[in-house]
Amino acid sequence: MNTKMKMMTAILSAGMLFGGAGWQAVSVDAATTAVTQASVNADVTLKWNGKQLTQKGLISRGSTYIPITAVRDLLGLSLTYDAKKRAYTLSGGVNEITAHVYDASEIGLLVNGFYAGEPGAKIVKGRLYVPYSLLNEYLGVQGQWNASTKTLSMSTIAPNKLTIGSESMNKPHNKANIEVRYPVIRGMEHAEAQSAINAVLKKHAKTFIETAAEELSDIPQSHTGYPYEYTGDFVVHYNQDGLLSITSYEYTYAGGAHGMTYQTSRTFSLKDGKELKLGDVINLKGGNKQKLDSYILNQFEDSDGYLGGFTEVPEDAQFYLKKGTAVLYFQLYEYTAYAYGFPEFELPLKEWK
């Protein structure tokens, strides 16, 4: 994915999801010394596969943080720093993690260029820390917490027996950059299921490219100094227990005050390549569908930014999986103001049997 898409997405995310703080010019040295010990509760002993690490984690505001250098070493990743962009990047896996220093106390985390949500990263005494929740959701790490000894014991999660790679698709155009990176699955036990999954993912990328070209044919050349953008990437949320859950993101800018990001999530059964609907992973039979509709409506009405209009969760609702949870979401502007981002609702699988 190109740099401009990452930076524009980061800037938009900072404005939307950091309470309007936006991207502010601040030196890395200032950010390094800004986090006070008053916000840090305690050191955390870290273990990996039963062996205690020399580096310590920390607890801050109820979240456990791990030194990013420990993450690099444990998972065999590459860690780089771009001083111009004020960005630290962990790469080498299917999900690339970037920590952008927007402000002295706000370090946003991106996964393959898209906002990963709260909590963000922290820099304490010159060391960068990332939340354990990021490792658990995007880097295949699981952990057990011992409250009495303040010890987090970590190990890798056994993934499905497959390999997730990527391919890129682009279309030269005189008005815009049109490019998308999409996942390619290899090494599955069931070859027909693998072919079916790859066909769906490639078709989605191809449709995005074709739609971008069609839209550009109807608009004039950009005269703002900012070229149009139609670019996309993906994030792997879940790759366990015979299930694979992936979200494709597409960013478009065709003039106006800001661009737009769209999400499309797909969850597949690896046994047969079937794409699952929300009703396949949680129980929506009987009165459960009405219960879900009421729950989502109440959540909307109790939160800021709701524009109205929600009546029910559609059969083809967008969702993705993470450990023990289905995450239902809606698009920007669908029911909430742009500044509030993508509204998400976590549905614990045990509670929605």
Automatic annotation (TrEMBL):
Residues 49-153 form the Copper amine oxidase-like N-terminal domain. Gene3D superfamilies: Fervidobacterium nodosum Rt17-B1 like, Heat-shock cognate protein, ATPase. The keyword Cell cycle does not apply. The keyword tRNA processing does not apply. Pfam families: Cu_amine_oxidN1, DUF3298, PdaC. Residues 308-349 form the DUF3298 domain. Keywords: Signal. Residues 174-261 form the Deacetylase PdaC domain. Residues 1-24 form the signal peptide. This is DUF4163 domain-containing protein. It comes from Paenibacillus lemnae. The lineage of its organism: Bacteria, Bacillati, Bacillota, Bacilli, Bacillales.
